[in-house]
Amino acid sequence: MTHDRGHASNSKVKRILFIGAHPDDETFLFGGTLAKYAEEGAQVTVVCATRGERGKTGDVCRAEELPRIREQELRRACAALGIQDVRFLSYIDRELTKAPVEQIRRELVEVIRGTRPQLVLTFDPNGLNQHTDHIAISRFVCDAVWAAADPRWFPEWPAHRVQRVLWPTPILPYKLVDTANLPNQPGVDFVMDVHAWLQKKKEALCAHRTQLPGLRKLFFERENSEACLSIEALRIGFGPRPGVVPGRDLFEGIEEH
Questions:
Q1: 71, 51 in Cβ contact below 8 A?
Q2: pLDDT at 257
Q3: Exposure b/e, 142-178, CB count within 10 A at least 16 = b
Q4: Distance between CA 194 and CA 32 in Å, rounded?
Q5: In this structure, what DSSP letter does residue 247 have?
Q6: Would residue 117 count as lying in a domain?
Q7: Contact between 74 and 47 (Cβ < 8 Å)
Q8: What is the pLDDT of residue 255?
Q9: Among the listed residues 219, 232, 257, the one whose alpha carbon sits nearest the alpha carbon of residue 8
Q10: Distance between CA atoms of residues 20 and 141, nearest Å
């Protein structure tokens, strides 16, 4: 795992940790939201469990080059979103379910305790689209969040309690814009208007060149593309609910410390 420890701080800072399975998960799920908070001064960390080495190449590179290329793509995408702290685990694409539980728990607890986020964003238990890697990372993150709060686990690092875990909603991200009465749909706990960060999100999506043919079909090749890219929604996995649902600020009701 490649990372630094520079984010822990005693000052009142908003901190977000996104943990995904593949390069591009961060952008197509929550790219605009991450860009918004990064621009507003939050410390945002992105962790990717694999390098997506069994994905499509998009005719950008040879298959054996894909891990290196997709790592570069993720770093470029995060730079476009204003995120500098990007970390990789060393698991294999489409084999994340086989990750040793004790090993990935330790790695994720180390990241959580090192960055001390109030919010953790990841996949829901159904993995959004039932991708086995998405389901696996959701399970591993849930396990690690609770372990990070318990000082009996890995006492070499101070315990940290995450205050809110957020998932994508049951509605696929590219279908949010077409959903009637979106605020009243179950599982839609936050709705984010990210139009102001639209260009950053587009640039981040386009940075994933190997995956762009598929991303283009989902987000760009539609009449309401700009509206589609301008709305993101999140579901509370655990933690306090906003006073009014859906909320507009992921940190509502969260202590900054």
A1: yes
A2: 65
A3: bebbbbbeeeebeeebebbebbbbbbbbebebbebbe
A4: 5
A5: B
A6: yes
A7: no
A8: 81
A9: 257
A10: 9
